[in-house]
């Protein structure tokens, strides 16, 4: 599969979900913002372990267990496939969700080999009314010597838990970028089944 999936700039957003420290006091953050902040603290604890950042198995396990329970992979998968989701069978949906999640976990895990240091994050004011089921957590991320980055997390309330279903880095959407990619892949291959098989094969590679 030669199509470039998941631009690395978008995975900066996932990395920052776990690696930044909020400048606002925790008690001033609302529930969707706390999802990001609390997960950040979990990673900061893991990074204190001497061999964590260089141990791929530990990283993969942590990403799967600590990050992705905060991601609505079903909603994300549906939005990524767009019109193809509506045409897909129940089995195809289940297979795509699993394959796409594994792709995200595998790709995200590789970001730990990158050097992201001295990040700080500002949470922009969030208006959340009683009964709201969706919201967008807007942040500005700063790093010494680099231009500030705007990262927005689209979130949905699912079973009383706020989960991320899309993120935008400087206006570039993870969902839209991948929708365009997968639409092209389905057109080129002729079927969703073929694309799922390609994803599953890609995920098996070391």
How is this structure best described in words?
By secondary structure, this protein is α+β, with helices and mostly antiparallel strands. It has a single domain (8-204), classed as Tgt2/MlaC (Nuclear Transport Factor 2, Chain: A, Roll), CATH 3.10.450. Helices cover 50% and strands 18% of the residues. It is built from eight helices and six strands, in the order αβαααααβββββαα. The chain has helices spanning 8-19, 31-46, 56-67, 73-81, 83-87, 90-110, 174-189, 192-204, and strands at residues 21-22, 119-123, 134-143, 149-158, 161-169, 172-173. It has a six-stranded mixed β-sheet with strand order 1-2-3-4-5-6. Helix 6 runs parallel beside helix 8 (192-204). The protein is globular and about 50 Å long.
Query: What share of the residues lie within helices?
Result: 40-55%
- Identify low-pLDDT runs: 18-24
Overall body shape: globular
Count of individual helical segments: 8
Give the tally of structural domains. 1
The main sheet comes to: 6 strands, mixed
Order of helices and strands: HEHHHHHEEEEEHH
The percent range for strand residues is 15-25%
Main sheet: which strands, in order across? 1-2-3-4-5-6
Q: What is the count of β-strands?
A: 6
* Name of the CATH first level: Alpha Beta
Assign the CATH superfamily: Tgt2/MlaC
* CATH architecture identity: Roll
Amino-to-carboxy terminus distance: 15 Å
Q: Tell me the structural class.
A: alpha+beta
| Computed Rg | 17 Å
CATH topology heading: Nuclear Transport Factor 2, Chain: A
Mean pLDDT: 82
